[in-house]
Design brief:
single chain, 5-stranded antiparallel beta sheet, two-stranded antiparallel sheet, 7 strands, DNA-binding
Length: 283
DNA sequence: CCACGGCCTGATTC
DNA sequence: AGAATCAGGCCGT
């Protein structure tokens, strides 16, 4: 099945830039679990070719469009953020890289697990939780598992989560899962809420600080002005913007949001990707 | 308001 | 080789 698409799209960078943790590359194909389906996809000249299970491809197609944010007008977004020279350079390097519209629940737990961790380990944690507490799904002889429900993780409890290798994040995941299972807050409702209100609701959850909250807002709750400040973005801003050199980390986000504007989140993703691939040099 | 150290764990670095 | 350091932070003091 094909999702036709003829606008800028850089699928490898989109899926491998660290905003989602369940995509695995096998040659030119990517395998991942979205919308409770095991999905296999690749980019072709005509768009995105994919297959999935257990649901039909007719129902997954529109959802993949949504997930990949194919309706974002990248050219317009580029015009808005490319007044900045550093962003312009990064866009030239990774043109077509898109933000994703992920499931907010999975996104929230994944980024709680990201604290003081690294991408391979976060992926292993997410995979372990899915295998232990999700439902198996099979496609082309490959079996993965859906991401567990809030109830499943809440019932699992801190000890079983520690056994999966989450470390000190286990208590945060258990407590936040309980809160979400109880509907406080209703994550999907936050898509309709203004940025500041959604941010405040997320910050009330255990294990969620400003950085994690902004990741969830940007990667799953349609807040394109969100601006997560992690170690890589901090390095990038300090090195590339004199105004930021001695700003405390807590003040960097508001500065960046004012500087980059309503699509600051897209600017963030390009700067992050560029600075991270550049490595630990210069700090 | 800001600075600082501890926290699970495993890979990488010294 | 064995000990620090670091990894997409958060929380309490």
């Amino acid at each position: 099945m094909l999702v036709p698409f003829d606008r800028p799209l850089n699928l490898p960078d989109t899926l491998e830039c660290g905003q989602a943790f369940r995509w695995q590359r096998r040659g030119e194909w990517y395998f991942g679990v979205v919308y409770n389906n095991l999905v296999k996809l690749r980019q072709t000249p005509g768009g995105i070719e994919f297959s999935c299970a257990p649901d039909g491809e007719a129902t997954l197609g529109p959802r993949l469009r949504d997930y990949l944010r194919l309706d974002d007008d990248l050219e317009a977004i580029y015009r808005a953020i490319c007044e900045d020279e550093r962003v312009r350079d990064a866009v030239a390097m990774y043109r077509g890289m898109r933000l994703l519209r992920q499931d907010p629940w999975e996104c929230l737990i994944s980024f709680i697990c990201s604290a003081n961790s690294n991408v391979p380990r976060i992926s292993a944690n997410v995979e372990a939780m899915s295998t232990a507490f999700g439902q198996p799904v099979t496609l082309d002889g490959e079996t993965r598992s859906t991401f567990p429900t809030p109830e499943a993780l809440a019932d699992a409890g801190e000890m079983k989560l520690r056994a999966l290798g989450l470390g000190f994040r286990a208590s945060y995941v258990a407590a936040t899962a309980r809160a979400i299972a109880d509907g406080r807050p209703d994550l999907f409702a936050l898509r309709e809420a203004p940025y500041e209100e959604a941010l405040a609701a997320l910050l009330a959850l255990p294990g969620v600080g400003d950085k994690v909250a902004n990741c969830v807002l940007l990667f799953s709750l349609d807040k394109l002005e969100a601006f997560p400040v992690d170690v890589w973005i901090e390095r990038a801003l300090r090195e590339w913007y004199l105004d930021c050199q001695k700003l405390p980390r807590a003040r960097m986000r508001p500065w960046a949001q004012a500087h980059f504007g309503p699509y600051a989140g897209y600017a963030n993703q390009y700067l992050f990707h560029r600075r991270r691939l550049q490595g630990r040099a210069k700090l």
